[in-house]
Design a protein that fits this description.
This protein has six helices and seven strands, in the order E-H-E-H-E-H-E-H-E-H-E-H-E. The chain has 191 residues and is of the alpha/beta class. A seven-stranded parallel β-sheet has the order 1-2-3-4-5-6-7, with helices on one face. The longest helix is centred in the middle third of the chain and has 16 residues.
Length: 191
């Protein structure tokens, strides 16, 4: 049985990127060059690891239209919510309420998956939207099976392992045996 390799590409919310990825996918029938793109909003109550000053300023409605374009071309969209720390503000009632509403809003845009770093936020998202797959961000620095077990308990379906573990085939095989997807970062800088 051959393992399928899927590429996930960072996006800038430029429609030309999706057209170009669709062209590549069409040229390589039977295998998708790009099965998924990922991105996040510059202004959101839940941070991304990408600095907001380099993210395009788009509204939730524009995100929804972009995701619809991706879907029309057979490309999935993963929302990236992989900021590492919120200074424990996520534990206040006001902020938790705001985060819960934000999660509902992004789910309503049609996202296919979400990438999360914070285990607490992962648990909240999974309780709210159990059918949306969760990928653990590489920023979580997952490098042990103990980490993987905790993330699986919180609803993760894929683990983007620590970049230092990209060649740790024992860990990769152990994750696969747990019926979780394994994601390996090929190129560190996001576009």
């Amino acid at each position: 049985e051959m393992t399928q390799i899927n590429f996930t590409i960072p996006c800038s919310f430029d429609e030309r990127l999706i057209d170009a990825l669709d062209d590549l996918n069409q040229k390589h029938s039977g295998a998708k060059v790009a099965s998924e793109v990922y991105g996040s909003l510059a202004t959101a109550p839940v941070p991304s690891s990408r600095p907001s000053n380099i993210l395009p300023e788009i509204e939730m409605s524009e995100l929804e239209k972009f995701i619809a374009l991706c879907h029309a071309k057979g490309i999935k969209f993963s929302y990236t919510q992989n900021g590492l720390c919120m200074g424990s503000k996520e534990h206040t009632l006001e902020r938790a309420t705001e985060i819960g509403q934000f999660f509902r809003d992004i789910v309503n845009t049609g996202i296919d998956a979400i990438t999360i770093t914070n285990p607490y936020l992962m648990e909240i998202f999974h309780l709210q939207s159990p059918k949306i797959p969760i990928t653990v961000s590489t920023i979580a620095n997952t490098s042990s099976i103990q980490h993987v077990r905790r993330y699986k308990e919180n609803g993760a379906s894929k683990i983007c392992i620590s970049q230092d573990s990209n060649r740790d085939f024992d860990l990769i095989n152990a994750i696969a045996r747990m019926e979780l997807g394994v994601v390996v970062v090929l190129n560190n800088p996001c576009l």
